Amino acid sequence: MKRKIFNYKIAIYAFFFIFSLVFIIPFILLISISFSTESDIMRYGYSLIPRTFSKMAYVFVFKNPTNLINAYVVTISYAFLGTTLSVAVMAMAGYALSREGFIYSKLVSRFLLVTMFFSGGLTPAYIINTQFYGLQDNFMVYILSGLASAYTIFVFRTFFAQLPKSLIESALLDGAGEMRVLRSVILPLSKPVLATFFMFGLLSRWQNFEVSLYYITDSKLYSIQYLLQLILNESRMIEETLRNIPGAYIGERPPGEIIKFAICVLGTLPMAAVFPFFQKYFSKGMVVGSVKG
């Protein structure tokens, strides 16, 4: 009996080990290609181990380190500040909608529901943000854009509604206000859903480059994703120019293919380092709202 259980565990561990390689190997390949040479990629294709170790792609990307570091600072700042404010706003809205004493709960819920299916579009949003709010070339455009999501508010509402009402009633009888109840009673019990949506918001803001594309012309306010896109476009332009010049490819090919992978590494590693700290909350946070809506 013990041998069967032991063999069964070995089979499970082996399955998940092999399954994990499906996700790990592509990331290793990504790093390996970024440290290869352009000529090796063109001649031999992709390899898990670089045939010739080269830092050419990273030298090209870091040729102006000041802009790159500044873009990282801007992106990290607005990603964490914006996500923190966004989660706080949506949690407060969800708590208000979950309270039975809130007389406008149905009206606000219907209004939010409409926003899930209908949107004014990009042009009205651009006009409002630039002409009325003055967010052109303004750091606050990163914070305020996408500040709240109707879907997430409904998930918060559902989660808060499932918590024991006796806890809220006890706190109110002790003289606590609604904000104190939310801060001291509700939020400490809501770590899984808070961590889950904080991580989702962080990833969304980190990967976003449209805000920089639409609203930012000052290079000091570029996000890291937008700056990396500009660097990639520059490398393509150089490669296209040299391709049209006879005899330009004497020696090592200019970084064209490998720079794509270097950019992927630089854009992915920070979030890959943060993800393990939130992973333990996902098993609970991902099923929030699946019981009742």
Mean pLDDT: 83
Q: How many helical stretches?
A: 15
**SSE order, as H and E?**
HHHHHHHHHHHHHHH
* CATH architecture assignment of the largest domain: Orthogonal Bundle
Q: Identify low-pLDDT runs.
A: 289-293
Strand content: under 5%
Any descriptors?
mainly alpha, MetI-like fold
How would you sum up this structure, described in words?
This protein is an all-alpha fold and about 290 residues long. It folds into 2 domains: about 1-45; about 60-285, MetI-like fold. Helix content is about 70%, strand content about 0%. The chain contains 15 helices and no strands. The protein is globular. The chain starts with a helix and ends in an 8-residue tail after the last helix. About 25% of the residues are buried. Residues about 290-293 have low confidence and may be disordered.
Short description:
The chain is mainly α and 293 residues long. Helix content is 71%, strand content 0%. It has helices at 2-34, 38-44, 56-61, 65-98, 105-117, 122-132, 140-144, 150-162, 165-173, 178-186, 191-207, 210-215, 224-243, 257-274, 279-285.
